Amino acid sequence: MLFFRNTVGRKIVIAVTGQLMVVFVVFHLLGNYFNPYSINLPDSGVLLWMMRAVMLISFFLHTFFSIQGELENRRAKPEAYAVKKNLRATFAGKTMLWTGLLIAAYIIYHVLQVKFLILEGSFQEGYVVAAVYVAALATLFLHLYHGIAGFFQTMGWNSERALPVIEKIGKGLAVVLLAGYISIIIFNRI
Amino acid sequence: MNLTLFIWRQKGPDKKGRLEQYEAKNISAEMSFLEMLDVVNEGLIKKGDEPVAFDHDCREGICGMCSQVINGVPHGPQEKTTVCQLHMRNFKDGDSIYIEPLRARAFPVIKDLIVDRSALDRVIQSGGYISVHTGGIPDANAILIPKENAETAMDAAECIGCGACVAACPNGSAMLFTAAKVTHLAMLPQGKIEAARRVCVMTDSMMNEGFGNCSNHYECQAVCPKGIKVQFIAKLNREFIKAAIRRRGGF
């Protein structure tokens, strides 16, 4: 498959699966705001399982190709400069692998806690859990700060005039999501 | 002005290199960076030491040979300027300057500041050409091309293949270089015939040469002496999607 073999193809797979997960993050926030107890949401059914399948496949493709690419990138740059000045690269962009792995760990923790009820505690009760949630949100914010704007470039939807707008939209959405989720934690704790 | 230089010295491809300190005395602000190195080398030769090996050719900013990383930035502190066109007025008396070769696995050091950039040539050889016979100059002009497309092709064709994009990229990717070549040919009717095959073959060749993947840091655009824009990478991505949908060229 061209999309799985070629560097540009893999980048597009990472971008599309990433954005599918961003769509989930948006709806998850809306759900938390307007329907926190999941009233009238089905617990089974074709649509739900299709959604879960898409998320699961996205999660694995996104993680697999990102790690594979990162390993190739490290091999491509074996020797570091004594002095290196980055002019454009951001902290968020350079830490994508680490923020991604932390988010993956958090997702597993969150699903075990909320869905399977294996892990105890909730952010409404414990300060430690709330702190973990906030840390995870900050990590997600960093990841999306680079990831959303990059999606447009990767899909080729970019021009000289569009770039500053795209970067603002991407970073803006990352800020809105961070603020939205943190506000839920704050409202529930007060 | 007097400067302290820290220059990467490496005897050969398989030898271990290190930064060595040199003093550059009585340097005029009007000198180019390479002329300053010439002065330092004359001093070294007089002392009986081995001069610093560095690449240079046209010294007028169009050949792409004089690639060095100066204080952590390929081609140094002045925007859209090659090392040979960088003048010492960009530095102050007493400054310390770190001079290193372009670093990437695909650019092995030959000696001191000279690296082997033939990997870029091999990327071009893989697909950066057209196979149709275009005839003489009047024949080429017989095909009308929209002014905008011609301008975009020319902007992309400005790439001099110096390798600064690779050196600046945290991933050691040559995507800006490859994108410039892909765009330059894909904008013109003669290049469109093989466009689908070209984008696949050239990006594969780039990876096979040991360059990294692009992850949208945009460091490449910031250091490009010719101002090649990352929008050309977006164009390459569009060309790739088109190729994947059409499945041309045996893919």
State the total count of DSSP E strands of chain B.
Answer: 7
Computed over alpha carbons, the radius of gyration of chain B is 20 Å
Strand elements of chain A, count: 0
pLDDT under 50 segments of chain A (min length 5)? none
- Element-level helix/strand string of chain B: EEHEEEEEHHHHHHHHH
Strand content of chain A: under 5%
Strand order of the largest sheet of chain B: 2-1-5-3-4
Instruction: State the domain count of chain B.
Output: 2
Overall spatial form of chain B? elongated
CATH architecture of the largest domain in chain B: Orthogonal Bundle
Structure description:
Chain A is globular, with a radius of gyration of 18 Å. In chain A, helix 3 (about 45-75) packs antiparallel against helix 5 and helix 5 (about 95-115) packs across helix 6 (about 125-155). Chain A has seven helices and no strands. In chain A, about 75% of the residues lie in helices and about 0% in strands. Chain A has one domain (about 1-190). Chain B is of the alpha+beta class and about 250 residues long. Chain B has two domains: about 5-110, Beta-grasp domain (Ubiquitin-like (UB roll)), CATH 3.10.20.30; about 120-245, Alpha-helical ferredoxin (Fumarate Reductase Iron-sulfur Protein, Chain B, domain 2), CATH 1.10.1060. Chain B is built from ten helices and seven strands. Chain B has helices at about 35-45, 120-125, 135-140, 145-155, 165-170, 175-185, 190, 195-210, 220-225, 230-245, and strands at about 5-10, 20-25, 70, 75, 95-100, 110, 115. In chain B, the strands form two sheets. Chain B has a five-stranded mixed beta sheet. In chain B, strands 6-7 form a two-stranded antiparallel ribbon. The relative contact order of chain B is 0.14. At the A-B interface, helix 2, helix 3 and helix 6 of A face helix 8, helix 9 and helix 10 of B.
